[in-house]
Each structure stands twice: as C-alpha cells, then as structure tokens.
Write a structure and sequence with these properties.
Blueprint: E1 2-9, E2 16-20, E3 27-35, E4 44-50, E5 58-63, E6 70-72, E7 76-79, E8 85-90, E9 92-94, E10 97-103, E11 110-118
Antiparallel strand pairs: 1-11, 2-10, 3-6, 3-9, 3-11, 4-5, 4-10, 7-8
C-alpha cells in the first residue's frame, strides 16, 4: 500500500484542481483522508480517476460540506455474472490519474486529501 498526497490552495473564487499522474497500472482505492485545513465552511470536493485506458473518467468520492477532518472508505456495489447488483461491496479500481476538484473553499485557502492505494 502507498499514499498520494493531494494538497490544494484555492483561487480567488474558492476553487482548486489538483492532478496527480499515476502509471496506468490498476490499483485499488482503500481510503481517503480528508484534511480540511483552512478551507471555508461548506467546502465541496470530488475525487476522480481521469486519463483512464478506456478514456472514461470515474468518480471515486464526492464530498459535500466537508467541513471537518475525516476518513472515508469508498466502496462500490459488486455485480453478479449477469450484471445484476449484489448486496456486497468491493474496492474501486483506479486505472488512470487522480484528480481532485475543490469548490466553495473560500479564497486562498488550503487543505489536502491523502489517497491510500493498494497495488
């Protein structure tokens, strides 16, 4: 397992985008540690995988009003062989780069997300 630190500083509109290039080797998303830092109350964030081999971006985690430091363990519903959703959950596969988009964070504010991935 390894971690990727995605630090952000918002612009004058309270927005920020951070991209981290990863090789296109598939990895499993284990956890996300959100550290709000100085971001304003009501900050929102979306973590996604971009530049995937299939050219289809994948939303990994959406945070709304993420006003406190927290740990998140994103999972997805598993499917059976016919494509029907099961009641069990599995890890998300990350096969591309990581992108963090922050909005409503306040002008010139900082924070970070630490992404924990398994190889």
């Amino acid at each position: 397992m390894f971690s990727v630190v995605m630090e952000f500083t918002t612009d004058g509109s309270g927005d920020a985008t951070v991209n981290v290039g990863l090789s296109n080797l598939p990895r499993l998303l284990y956890a996300v540690e959100w550290k709000v830092g100085t971001a304003a109350t009501g900050v929102d964030a979306v973590l996604s995988a971009t530049n995937t081999e299939s050219a289809v971006d994948q939303t990994l985690l959406t945070l709304t009003n993420a006003d406190a430091n927290a740990w998140y363990y994103p999972r997805t519903l598993e499917d059976d062989q016919a494509g029907a959703a099961l009641l069990t959950r599995g890890y998300l596969v990350v096969n591309g780069d990581l992108k963090l988009v922050v909005s409503s964070g306040g002008a010139s504010k900082t924070g970070m997300a630490v992404i924990y991935l398994a190889e």
